[in-house]
């Protein structure tokens, strides 16, 4: 945020277990990036990583914030939650791995592809996780 090339930040509050709001933040980010005239290929990547990060906060955390920071040459999505943290990050990044409950799976979530896709579609991906929460930075170059 102290970077001189930082142009704009969008902030969304994410409520745990609120499936009526889930996806609102990432769809608003998508809309705003379109208005800014960002390349559709970049928007597509940002839409994927922000959606998966948002859903993960709804399902797996106690709540948090989703940020979209726009820089001259990149977009950084930050998910910052209070929650149980991720015990084994490498395992959590394995395709198909999920601790989602059966009730969450019935809603269509919990395929275990969120974190792998967040990593795949980011040009830079960084997770800081502890016993009281998780912060993830996903950079998409413009
Ligand atoms: N923000 C988070 N807080 C705590 N645990 C998380 C978080 N995000 C992901 N996880 C853990 O990593 C696992 C894999 O995440 P993901 O690939 O998105 O799969 P899914 O969300 O379908 O379970 C989750 O099942 C959960 O155990
Ligand atoms: Mg997920």
Strand order in space, largest sheet: 1-2-3-5-4
What structural class do helix, strand and pairing data support? Answer: alpha+beta
Which small-molecule ligands are present, each listed once? Answer: adenosine-5'-diphosphate, magnesium ion
How many separate structural domains? 1
Q: Give a count of the beta strands, DSSP E runs of length 2 or more.
A: 5
Instruction: Spell the H/E element sequence.
Output: EHHEEHHHEE
User: Quaternary state, please?
Assistant: single chain
Average pLDDT, all residues = 96
> How much strand content do the residues show?
25-35%
What Rg is obtained from the alpha carbons, in whole angstroms?
Answer: 14 Å
The CATH superfamily label reads: Histidine kinase-like ATPase, C-terminal domain
């Amino acid at each position: 945020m102290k970077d001189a090339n930082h142009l704009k930040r969008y902030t969304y509050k994410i409520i745990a277990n609120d499936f009526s709001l889930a996806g609102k933040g990432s769809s608003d980010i998508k809309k705003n990036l379109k208005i800014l005239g960002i390349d559709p290929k970049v928007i597509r990547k940002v839409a994927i990583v922000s959606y998966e990060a948002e859903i993960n906060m709804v399902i797996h955390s106690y709540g948090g914030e989703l940020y979209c920071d726009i820089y001259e040459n990149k977009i950084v999505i930050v998910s910052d939650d209070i929650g149980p943290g991720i015990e084994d990050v490498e395992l959590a990044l394995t395709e198909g791995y999920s601790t989602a409950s059966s009730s969450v799976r019935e809603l269509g979530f919990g395929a275990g592809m969120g974190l792998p896709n967040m990593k795949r579609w980011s040009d830079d991906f960084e997770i800081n996780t502890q016993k009281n929460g998780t912060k993830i930075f996903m950079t998409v170059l413009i």
